[in-house]
Write a structure and sequence with these properties.
Blueprint (H helix, E strand, L loop, with lengths): L2 E6 L2 E6 H7 L2 E11 L2 E7 L10 E3 L1 E3 L7 H13 L6 E14 L2 E13 L11 E8 H10 L6 H9 L1 H5 L4
Parallel strand pairs: 3-8
Antiparallel strand pairs: 1-2, 3-4, 3-6, 4-5, 4-9, 7-8
Length: 171
């Protein structure tokens, strides 16, 4: 059982991660975009992920452990998913969204979004990531419009509703 923080009856409480998504409970999360100039690093989620398997998304995202600092969580997850360490993280925005992620599961996240700049060589953890690629933001926007089913709901939301807040200096 993996417990994550979630708001239940107005109070932040540890709840099983799968239960959080079944009930669509609001919960904290982080998302990281790694940028190399106007290009961003994407990962394709492993086929074994319990939701949105095989879909393309930003460099990494996760839920913090109980009591974990959000920036520390972002750095931890970059290393766990992609083997990336040492990139300074800049907090860009806090975004709330709700999205159906299939299989009767809902993400209702209050997300701290971070940007990191550099050109690291990812070493994907195969339990988390099946492949990676770099893509320009304009090309990514075009791909998500043409083939939205290939991308996670949250990535599409970030690009269509929050791009200015996230990518202001890089777009």
């Amino acid at each position: 059982m993996s417990l994550i923080p979630a708001w239940v009856e107005g109070k932040l409480t540890p709840v099983d991660k799968l239960e959080v998504h079944r009930r669509g409970l609001r919960h904290p999360a982080i998302s990281v975009f790694v940028m190399d100039g106007p290009r961003t690093l994407l990962q394709r989620r492993a086929e074994t992920k319990y939701h949105t398997p095989g879909l393309w998304t930003n460099a990494c995202c996760t839920h913090p452990h109980w009591g974990e600092d959000m920036a520390a969580c972002a750095a931890r997850r970059l290393e766990e998913e992609l083997g990336i360490t040492g990139l300074p993280l800049v907090h860009r925005a806090q975004i709330e969204y709700r999205a159906d992620v299939g299989g009767g599961l809902t993400e209702h996240e209050l997300v701290d979004v971070y940007l990191a700049h550099g050109r690291p060589e990812p070493v994907p953890n195969p339990e988390e990531v099946s492949e990676t690629r770099w893509i320009g933001l304009d090309a990514l926007r075009a791909e998500t419009e043409t083939n939205p089913e290939r991308f996670t709901p949250w990535l599409r939301i970030y690009l269509t509703q929050h791009a200015q807040r996230i990518f202001a200096e890089t777009a």
